[in-house]
Design brief:
This protein is an alpha/beta fold. The protein has one domain (about 35-300): 3-Layer(aba) Sandwich (Rossmann fold), CATH 3.40.50. It has 9 helices and 12 strands. The chain has an 8-stranded mixed sheet with strand order 5-4-3-6-7-12-11-10, sandwiched between helices. Strands 1-2 form a two-stranded parallel ribbon. The radius of gyration is 19 Å and the shape is globular.
Length: about 300
């Protein structure tokens, strides 16, 4: 939440230059308050686990958030509990009849497929297209980021030499970027992917700004339209044991899988992983919600 102080106070400009949330008294006194409307297109096979992860982060804020869960009706889920999607999820077409402050599009285990070969691609593409004018800010995660970059800008994904898997250090390129308020100069985040969006294509697209990248993990966060489009290639939302479950699942299937990097103490899978990304995950999602809260029109019909 922003702090309300007079614009004449010396701290006002100093804090605003640091991108701290400050709001002029005269603006705050005339603000209308309502719950934020956030939709989640949950494409992960770990349906309930992903719900918990995202809702945990969205709930760590003083803002009231009204969440709508969206399903892809063109896809038959084999992993959600029977009847779960029908009971708690709305058809994705619902988004075409409403407007939202925010939308989250999750990752999905379909990296090896061309986008057009994903069975729900047309349905998801329609959601991405609709969000451009009817959602204030869309947060794309992992494959959801690759899908958004491809749909909006034609940016292809490329296979990595081997899976990027583990906890990796990331750095900010713009210290006072809205999404990074309160971040340390270096922060950790989980990565779990076999592909990456073409970095050169991202850098050539004038609408996109690379906000965080490193040589090892590549582009981590890119944005467009001053935060109305956010592309996150990793998984800040992951809970302490998500990578552990992925590792043991693939190992038990006999698949070639490395121990997740920087995750287990001394790289020993028999030891409990140490969580070192949770604080920044909460901060990132809080920053996103606060950005949406400050910038979205009170009347969503005014979105453009």
């Amino acid at each position: 939440m922003p702090i309300k102080i007079p614009t004449a106070l010396p701290a006002f400009n100093a804090l605003r230059e640091e991108n701290v949330f400050v709001i002029p008294v005269e603006k705050a006194d005339h603000q209308d308050i309502r719950p934020l409307k956030v939709a989640i297109a949950n494409l992960m096979p770990t349906t309930v686990e992903t719900e918990i992860q995202l809702l945990r982060l969205l709930g760590n804020s003083p803002l009231q958030v009204d969440v709508t869960l969206l399903r892809m009706d063109s896809h038959s889920s084999r992993n959600a509990p029977p009847g779960h999607l029908e009971k708690f999820y709305a058809p994705s077409q619902k988004i075409t009849r409403e407007r939202f402050d925010g939308l989250i599009i999750t990752g999905a285990p379909v990296e090896s497929l061309p986008f057009e070969d994903v069975d729900y691609w047309d349905e998801l593409a329609a959601v991405i297209d609709y969000s451009a004018r009817n959602v204030w800010s869309t947060l794309h995660i992992c494959w959801g980021a690759q899908a958004g970059l491809y749909r909006r800008y034609g940016i292809p994904k490329k296979p990595l030499e081997k899976k990027l898997f583990g906890i990796f250090p990331h750095k900010m390129k713009g210290k006072y970027t809205t999404l990074f308020r309160g971040f340390d100069d270096e922060f950790l985040a989980p990565q779990s992917r076999h592909t990456a969006s073409d970095r050169d294509a991202i850098s050539r697209e004038k609408s996109l700004v690379i906000q965080s990248e490193t040589a090892e993990a590549g582009v981590f966060i890119a944005t467009a339209r001053e935060g109305r489009e956010i592309y996150v290639t990793g998984h800040l939302e992951y809970d302490p044991l998500t990578l552990d479950r992925e590792y043991r699942r693939d190992r038990d299937k006999g698949l070639s899988i490395d121990i997740p990097k920087n995750y287990y103490p001394e790289d020993n899978p028999e030891r409990s992983p140490v969580v070192r990304w949770r604080a920044h995950a909460h901060l990132f999602f809080s920053n996103w919600l606060n950005y949406v809260y400050q910038e979205t029109p009170y009347n969503l019909e005014e979105l453009a």
